[in-house]
Write a structure and sequence with these properties.
Elements: H1 2-7, H2 15-32, H3 39-58, H4 62-69, H5 77-84, E1 85-90, E2 103-110, E3 113-120, H6 126-131, H7 139-154, E4 159-165, H8 172-176, H9 179-192, E5 197-206, H10 207-214, E6 218-222, E7 226-228, H11 232-239, H12 246-253, H13 257-263, E8 268-270, H14 281-299, H15 304-316
Parallel strand pairs: 3-4, 4-5, 5-6, 5-7, 6-8
Antiparallel strand pairs: 1-2, 2-3
Helix pairs in contact: 2-3, 5-14, 7-9, 9-10, 11-12
């Protein structure tokens, strides 16, 4: 039973590792019951499992990266806020229509400095995923983000955004309430700020839903996250009239962190623990915190006008033909 439960947390390409870890758990159970001393055997199996894990994650394909970025146990926006932001005070509503639970935002203190934090949250279980619309924001979510960014600008507070979304919600209601305009205004707001803006892609960075929060001075990306104009499944359904070619679409989209760094879309890759952020969430959260702290430290030397100018020039210089 222990082995069967373990298997549920493993991705398809991790099956050999899952089998080994299942055997390790069974042997440890026998040892704990006092039936046999198998410390040497457990050590050998654990060493082999660690070797396979390092080997697998050193050679991930783009489709495997997609799977890791979507892992259900990967730390989410609220986990980063809990781990990095002290005295976090959430602020709700767009002051026009409603509250959007897919977008989390508020005031807090990051390593001694007051700041505004905004992020997309997918939810951790069925109930929260439905409540947060699986991280797909509606127009009111982006308008809330704009409101908080304007608040940060007024009080001269740096902004940290955490991106994890397959994209903006494409429903009829969202379109009727001006989804495209809300995203465009959010991008415009990002580009007009006169305070430091640092964005981190912590899972999926999907289309305009991600850019609306990630038009930043410094864009960071976790090693096994993805950033793309469209989800592989959606791309496959458009080009091949079927989602069966999602693997090929992932290859063609060039959506990995190394691709994004090569294209100049992001500024830094934040390394994850061996086996992905979901295996050691606290380590991944600390790594993101350290990277954000360093980025903010570099940006504090510029005044507001320089920050805005540098941010705009950064995106004008992006050349999609690179690599």
């Amino acid at each position: 039973m222990a082995a069967a439960q373990l298997m549920q947390t493993f991705l398809d390409f991790e099956r050999p590792i899952a089998d080994l870890e299942g055997k390790i758990e069974e042997l440890r159970h026998l040892s704990d019951a006092g039936e046999i001393n198998i410390a040497d055997e457990v050590g050998k199996l654990q060493g082999e499992a660690d070797r396979l894990l390092r080997q697998a994650y050193a050679n991930l394909t783009p489709w495997q990266k997609v799977q890791v970025a979507r892992h259900p146990e990967r730390p989410h926006c609220v986990d980063y806020i809990d781990g990095l932001i002290e005295e976090f005070t959430p602020l709700a509503g767009d002051r026009a229509f409603a509250e959007d639970y897919a977008v989390v935002g508020g005031l807090g203190r990051f390593r001694g400095y007051s700041c505004v934090v905004i992020g997309t949250e997918k939810g951790a279980d069925t109930t929260s995923r439905v409540a947060r619309n699986f991280g797909m924001a509606r127009p009111e979510g982006y308008r809330k983000a704009q409101r908080l960014m304007h608040l940060a600008d007024r009080f001269q507070l740096p902004v940290i955004t955490l991106v994890d979304t397959t994209g903006a919600y494409p429903g009829v209601g969202a379109e009727e309430r001006g989804q495209a305009e809300a995203i465009a205004r959010s991008i415009e707001t990002c580009l007009s700020l006169q305070v430091p803006l640092v964005s981190v892609v912590i899972g999926e960075g999907g289309s305009g839903g991600a850019i609306a929060l990630a038009s930043a001075n410094s864009v960071l990306m976790l090693e096994h996250s993805i950033y793309s104009v469209i989800a592989p499944e959606a791309c496959s359904s458009i080009l091949w009239r079927s989602v069966d070619q999602a693997r090929d679409a992932a290859e063609a989209l060039r959506l990995t962190a190394s691709d994004m760094l090569k294209f100049g879309v992001i500024d830094q890759i934040v390394l994850e623990p061996v086996g992905g952020a979901h295996r050691s969430p606290s380590v991944a959260i600390d790594a993101v915190g350290n990277a954000v702290e360093l980025a903010l430290s570099d940006l504090r030397e510029f005044d507001g006008a320089a920050l805005r100018t540098r941010r705009r020039e950064k995106f004008l210089k992006i050349d999609g033909r690179a690599g």
